[in-house]
Specification:
CATH topology of the largest domain: D-Maltodextrin-Binding Protein, domain 2
Number of domains: 2
CATH architecture of the largest domain: 3-Layer(aba) Sandwich
Radius of gyration: 25 Å
Order of helices and strands: HEHEHEHEEHEHEHEEEHEHH
Structural class: alpha/beta
Shape: globular
CATH class of the largest domain: Alpha Beta
Largest sheet: 9 strands, mixed
Distance between the termini: 75 Å
Length: 278
C-alpha cells in the first residue's frame, strides 16, 4: 500500500514538473482591420507579407463596407478601418462624442471603372449618359449606340464607400433608379455583369478582369496613367482610418503599407501607388 502511494505521488510530482517545464505559448500581437471591399484585396496582401516578415504578429482583415468599418473603429472593436470614401461629418461627430479623433491615411489611388459585358458593342459613355442610365431615364442600350437590349443596372449597397463615391461623381443628390441591383461587394458586381449581357456596373480598377469590359468615360480609359495625369474623371483616393495617431503594431503595419515595398503591393494589385515603389 505504501509503495502504491509512493508511486502515485511520484507520478503527480513528475506531471507537475512537466507542466512547469512546458514551454509557454508565445504571445502574439494582434490587429484587426475591417471595411471597404475595394481596399480589401490590397490590405489582405499587405497583411500576408507583413506577417511573413514579422513572426509573432497576427493581422486579420475583413470586409463589410466602408461604413461598417468606420462604425467598428468608432466603437473600438477594431484597430483600423479601410475605406473607399472620406469619413462623413456625422461619423466625425459621433467619434468626437466618444472622445476619439479619427485620423485619415491615404494609402492608394483608384479609378471607378464603369463595366459592361464583353459582348456589349458600346465602348464609351459620357458622364451625362451614365447619369441618365442610373436615374432610369435611359433604359435600352440602343439609346446610347448599342443593341436593342434592356439595360440591367447593378450598383453597390448603400453602406459601400464605392456607392457614395459613384453617387457624388455621377448623380449628385439624385437617387439611383429603384430597380437597380444593389450588391454587397465589388466581386458580386463583377460576377453579375459577367453573367448578364445587358448589365452595367462600376468597380475599383483593381477588380477589372478579362471577362468584363471597362468603358471609356468621356473618351478616357480607366488606367493608372490617365488617373495620375488627371485625365480620367472618376478617380478617388483609398484610405485607412485610425482612432488617433497609430501606435505599436498598427503604426508598424501602416509604415509598411506606405513603404516602397508596401506601395509595390498596391501597384501589383492594379491600384495606383501614392508613394515611391521599390
Amino acid at each position: 500500500m505504501k509503495k502504491s502511494i509512493a508511486v502515485t505521488m511520484a507520478a503527480i510530482f513528475g506531471l507537475m514538473a512537466g507542466l512547469v517545464a512546458a514551454p509557454v505559448a508565445e504571445s502574439r500581437e494582434r490587429l484587426v482591420l475591417q471595411g471597404s471591399t475595394t481596399v480589401l484585396p490590397i490590405t489582405v496582401k499587405h497583411a500576408e507579407e507583413f506577417m511573413k516578415r514579422n513572426p509573432g504578429t497576427e493581422i486579420s482583415v475583413r470586409g463589410g463596407g466602408s461604413g461598417a468599418g468606420i462604425k467598428a473603429l468608432i466603437e473600438g472593436t477594431i484597430g483600423m478601418a479601410q475605406a473607399s470614401r472620406s469619413i462623413r461629418d456625422g461619423e466625425i461627430l459621433e467619434a468626437k462624442a466618444r472622445g476619439i479623433k479619427v485620423v485619415e491615411h491615404t494609402i492608394a489611388g483608384d479609378a471607378l471603372a464603369v463595366i459592361v459585358h464583353p459582348e456589349n458593342p458600346v465602348a464609351n459613355l459620357t458622364k451625362a449618359q451614365i447619369r441618365d442610365i442610373y436615374l432610369g431615364k435611359t433604359t435600352n442600350w440602343r439609346e446610347v449606340g448599342g443593341k436593342d437590349q434592356k439595360i440591367v443596372v447593378t450598383s453597390r449597397d448603400v453602406a459601400s464607400g464605392t456607392f457614395k463615391a459613384f453617387n457624388e461623381k455621377i448623380l449628385g443628390k439624385e437617387k439611383q433608379r429603384p430597380d437597380a441591383l444593389f450588391l454587397a461587394s465589388s466581386a458580386a458586381v463583377v460576377g453579375t455583369v459577367t453573367g448578364t449581357p445587358g448589365a452595367i456596373g462600376y468597380v475599383g480598377m483593381g477588380f477589372l478582369r478579362p471577362e468584363i469590359k471597362a468603358l471609356h468615360v468621356d473618351g478616357v480609359a480607366a488606367t493608372a496613367e490617365n488617373l495620375v495625369a488627371g485625365k480620367y474623371p472618376l478617380g478617388r483616393p483609398l484610405f485607412i482610418y485610425t482612432a488617433g495617431e497609430p501606435t505599436g503594431l498598427a503604426k508598424r503595419f501602416l509604415d509598411f503599407i506606405m513603404s516602397p515595398d508596401g506601395q509595390k503591393i498596391v501597384k501589383e494589385a492594379e491600384f495606383v501607388p501614392v508613394g515611391p515603389v521599390k
